[in-house]
Amino acid sequence: MRMRPARAPHAGARIIDLHPPQADLRAEVLEGLRKDPKELPPKLFYDAEGSVLFEEITTLPEYYLTRTEIGILQANANAMLSRIGESPTLIEFGSGSSTKVRILLDRLAGPATYVPVDISAVALTAAAEAIAADYHVRVIGICADYSREFTLPPLPGSGRRTIFFPGSNLGNLNPQEAASFFVRSWKLLRKGDGMLIGIDRQKDPAILNAAYNDSRGITAQFNKNILGRINRAIGADFDLAAFEHVAFYNDAESRIEMHLRSTRQQDVTVAGERFSFRSGETSHTENSYKYGEGDLETLIRGSGFRTVETWSDAAKWFSVYYLRVY
Ligand code: AVJ
Fold first, then answer.
1. Which of 40-49, 56-65, 284-293 has the lowest mean pLDDT?
2. Which among 308, 297, 320 is positioned nearest to 85, based on CA atoms?
3. Which residue has the least CA distance to atom 5 on ligand 1?
4. Strand arrangement of the beta sheet that strand 243-250 belongs to
5. Is 93 helix (H, G, I), strand (E, B) or coil?
6. pLDDT, tens digit, for every residue of 210-241?
């Protein structure tokens, strides 16, 4: 039987809207397409259709990341919770549907505060209400963009804060952006507080290449959906059939790169502006950095964290780190 905290359950979730500045989609797309080589930011993947495609990716046999991380969380949740400490405040960045945190909450005994942070007020509210209904924890949802600096409102609870950042979402950031992510995070914490973060590791490139070139072509659809989204959201006439998915491991940069390759010379009108694509020209849509042992250490040491403990699967394909502010 699961241990229940002694105090009464909290009624519902409180939502605090910090009114994150809405991205100017049109300006960002045009800016990226004016570059040479052309670029489109990976956050554009996640409209309603793209989010469904990403959920499907997480179930693909080749996409080992999600199931491996969930396995690590399940196998080591108690050890993680003892690092996190008594009466914790768990602050999740990009909480989405708040699925993975349930693995921790399932094993929590005693009071706790869960603070999901997400840019989508709709997703945040639904997930926060669901957690408040299912667990005896205080839930304070914060609508904010964790990719920029923001300040937390005063939070109740006397225990340590832990930022929970699963999914290897750090992988989308280049080393400089990753370093500033840790500095921003550090500013939300105090000495002795921590961070529990999921990190995808360097491995046989064949495994990495397969994970981003799945046999059912779902990743290809996910990548091309960025063009469909631009068509729908800002008015453009991209022909999705005239672009192909490209994903490969760039060994020198330790990252998977995703691109969209124009299969012919073509002109596309985007928000009234005309862009030419050469036959074979690629537009860069995503980086997904893979970390070797020691890489993360170098990154975090400069920003006030130390690694306290790491947990991995047997093959060392994925790791969860508990870092502490010192
Ligand atoms: C959500 C950024 C962790 O990089 O593996 C999955 C996104 N892109 N397949 C990743 C993604 C292509 C994913 N992250």
1. 40-49
2. 308
3. 288
4. 243-250, 255-262, 282-289
5. strand
6. 999 999 999 999 999 999 999 999 999 999 99
Ligand 1 atom nearest to CA at 223: 12
**Coil, strand or helix at 252:** coil
Ligand 1 centre and the CA of 288: distance in Å?
A: 7
> How far, in Å, is the centroid of ligand 1 from the Cα of 285?
11
Residue with tokens 């063009």, as numbered in its chain: 227
Atom 4 of ligand 1, nearest CA residue: 288
**Which atom of ligand 1 sits closest to the CA of residue 286?**
8
* DSSP letter string, 268-302: EEETTEEEEE-TT-EEEEEEEE-BPTTHHHHHHHT
Q: Measured in whole angstroms, how far is the alpha carbon of residue 161 from the centre of its chain?
A: 19
Q: Residue 172 CA: which ligand 1 atom is closest?
A: 2
Residues in the chain: 326
Q: Cα 277 from chain centroid?
A: 30
Ligand 1: list residues with CB < 6 Å. Answer: 57, 65, 167-169, 171-172, 212, 219, 286, 288
pLDDT in tens, 20-40: 988 899 999 999 999 999 999
| Nearest partner of 185 among 147, 155, 135, judged by Cα | 147
Burial of residue 272 (CB within 10 Å: 0-12, 13-18, 19+) is exposed
The atom of ligand 1 lying closest to the CA of 288 is: 4
Whose alpha carbon is nearest atom 1 of ligand 1?
Answer: 169
Dist CA 168 CA 197 (whole Å): 7
> pLDDT band at residue 158, thresholds of 50, 70 and 90?
confident
Question: Do 325 and 194 touch, CB atoms closer than 8 A?
Answer: yes
Q: Ligand 1 pocket check: which of 147, 173, 181, 286 to mutate, most ligand atoms within 8 Å of Cβ? A: 286
Question: Which residue in this structure is represented by tokens 């981003």?
Answer: 212
Ligand 1 atom with the smallest distance to the CA of 222 is 12
For residue 37, is the peptide bond before it cis, meaning its omega torsion is within 30 degrees of 0? Answer: yes
